[in-house]
Amino acid sequence: MRSTPCPEEIVAQAAKLCYSPASIDDLKEQIERKGQTDFIGKLTDMRHLSPLEHVTFTFGVEGISRSCSHQIVRHRLASYSQQSQRYVGQQSGKTGGFHFIVPPGIEKIGKKPWFIEKMHLIQQWYDELTEHSGIREKAPSRTPAFCCPMPPRPK
């Protein structure tokens, strides 16, 4: 979607600033485009990574499972904005329904059609629940929030 223009130049300038008594304007003049890639390689070899934080790349990702997106945000390599399951309903008539990924293990055992059928059934149940429970207007997708990642156990 967007990125920092001339990211190698920005990284090189930020790093050179750490090691040079020169002014920022002088550093701009000293950095040659052809040497930037090698210089950035040296920075990573030295584990001097903070200059890399001066550039940004913004992109959108679609078509991955919620499980995958949770693993990505869990490791916090960047800043993330993700569609809210709390505020964005997944009703068939409103959004075309929820989208899902067929797990490779399901395909491997030849159960893909069965899995898709069950997911469509879950969509029907979700639509009925949101239609008849009164949560459609207030919090349309709170229902998935009540699913437990692990079965509850008595204590």
Largest sheet: 2 strands, antiparallel
What spatial order of strands do you see in the largest sheet? 1-2
The rough form would be described as elongated
Strand content: under 5%
Count up the domains: 2
Overall SS class: mainly alpha
How far apart lie the N and C ends? 49 Å
Mean residue pLDDT: 82
Low-confidence stretches: none
Percent helix, as a range, is: 40-55%
**Total number of helices:** 8
What's the total count of β strands? 2
Radius of gyration: 24 Å
H/E topology pattern: EHHHEHHHHH
Pfam family, one: Thy1
Enzyme class: transferase
GO biological process, one term: dTMP biosynthetic process
Protein name: FAD-dependent thymidylate synthase
